[in-house]
Every structure is written in structure tokens, then in C-alpha cells.
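Per-residue structure
===
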Amino acid sequence: MRNWELVILDRVIMRAMRQIFPLPLLLILSTIVFGQADNTKIDYSAPPNALFTAEEVTVTAKGYTLAGTLLLPKNGKRPLPAVITITGSGQQTRVEPIPFPGLEKYRPMRQIAEALASRGVAVLRVDDRGVGGSGGRETLATVTTSSFADDVRAEVAYLRSRSEIDPKRIGLVGHSEGGIIAPMVAANDAQIAAIVLLAGSGKSGAQISMEQLTYILDNAPGVTPELRKQKLAEEQEMITAVQTGGDLSHYPAQVRLPWTKEFWTYDPLTTIRKVRQSILILQGALDRQITAEQADLLEKAAREAGNKDVTKQIFPNLNHLFLTAKTGGVDEYSKLETSTIGDDVLKVLGDWLVLKFGVKSK
């Protein structure tokens, strides 16, 4: 029978796996993390006296549809600039909530969308495939991050079909895994005007997983140097097996999913070097999930590849969720004093997009 330290460690690691960089397909294996598809009717209408309207829309993807909300500024000059918000890992609805005690009111994509729409930028946000009002749940066993990029391409095509939207002024705003997807789409679509990476990764998933586990082990109670070394070796062995096509039969089922292999092998720096559009990189200094130096790696790679329009800002005291924190650790999430993104982040994001899109102030 295992000792109490190992029991605690396993619980910490499993919680971290779910909340730090959850495998999107864990919902196939368990309903604990994501639950069943939530078809509860949620009110996405515009607040009273808002400077924008909120329209429920349907985007046609590959064999299924995505449900979304399109915010249109009331007084902006048509055709309008627009952005698409892209959520982080795990199947999430269009406001990007996370199932964490104390953060029930955390709705970052709604905050971002309404802040931008109030400044003259249209915003499309959708439920990820397989959750909320979106279809495609039957595809989740085989999806990868590249698959989700295809969904975003469908959303771009939808915006270009709307007469209210300027097809040459469409931007992408991605958080976490969304910060991987945005460059994927922009690198192959010269008409995309700009991308914003909110805690986008600058390292391979293999490196990120090892760093995340190292942080967990270094901060978990009762972890001896021997146990730390053992757990890191086991993680690296599993990653290597996935990367090289080794025998995965004795590993957890989720590591055999296509998403995992792409995540552990994909190099985001290769893609960011192909992006020629304007790039804004925003990062929390206390982020323990996508560490702050990854913003530096992204900026350096883009600039060295010839992109001269790269802006980076690191916010002190903010964690991966862009919330004020003390340590940035996942174990702190339920004790945070706020569940809303600060005005400083929204202002930097809004100012940059308004400038790049040439939005005239009223």
C-alpha cells in the first residue's frame, strides 16, 4: 500500500493535469473534468444600454455547426473590424469559464468581447466543438490543436461572409492553447490583420509538461529528492514513448490520443516565425502554467524571422488567468481576491487593436 505522500502527490498531479493544461479529450474518459455537453440555455444578450448588439449565430464547420455570439458596435462605421476569441485547452463554452471553486464568475472572453465591442470592434466568440450549443462531439476522440485551428478558419470564413465586417480587418485573440492556434491560422492566411497571444506558449508541450510537473513536485508536501527524480523520469519516459511512437499500452488512455502527441511534439516557435501580421504578446509574470520567459521566446523568434511589428507586455502579479495573484500556483486559484480581468489588461489589448485596425474614436 502506498504511503500518504504518494497519495497526496497523485491527487495534486491529477488536479493540475485537469486545470493547468487539461487534455481536451479527458471528457471521453471521465465526466468529472468537463461533465456532459451543457445544453442549458445561457443568456448571452448585451447588457442594458450597451454600445453594441449581441446576435446569436451559427458557424458551419466540417460536418457540424458551432454556436456563437457576434457583438456588433452600434455606432461603428461599416464595415467593421472584428476579432475572434479563441479559448484555452479543454472544451469550453464561448466565455471560457473554468470549473474551479471560487472562480464561478470568471468569464474572460465575455469581458474581452464586451470591452472591445464598446470600442468599435466587432467580436465573434463561439462554444468549442462538442460543448454548449456546438456540435462535433463525435469527433473529439481524434481531434488535435490543428483540428481546432480548422474551426477558427471556419469562423474567419463566416465573418468574411458578413456585410458588416471588413474582411481585411479581422484579428484573432487567443488564450493559452488559443495562443497556439492563432499563429497557426495567421501563418497560412495573409488576410488576417493581427493576432493577440494571451499566455501563448513558446515551448513545445513536452517542455511545458515537464516544467509544470517540476513545479508541482517542488511545491507538493512530502516529496523527497528520490521521489522527485522518479516522477520526472516517468513523465519523460511517457513523453518520449508518445513522441516516438513507442508502446503506450501501459500508460493512461489519454496519452494515446492524437491531441496529446501533437501537443508534445509541436514547436510554436516554428509557426510564429511564419507570421507576418502584427503580433501582441501579453503575459502574466506569475504564470506557472505558461511561464513568463515564453513571451520572450515568442517575441525573439518573430523578430528574428523579420517581423518588425511585435509588441510584448508582461504584467506583474498576474497569473495564467490574468488575475491578480501572489504565487501564481493552481492551488491559489480558489483563494484569489478577484475573478475579473483588470482594466489595465483590457486597456492595453483594446488600445493596441484600435490602433492596428484604425478605429476612429467617437
Observations:
- The first helix runs from residue 4 to 19.
- DSSP finds eleven helices and eight strands in the chain.
- Residues 4-33+206-262 form one domain.
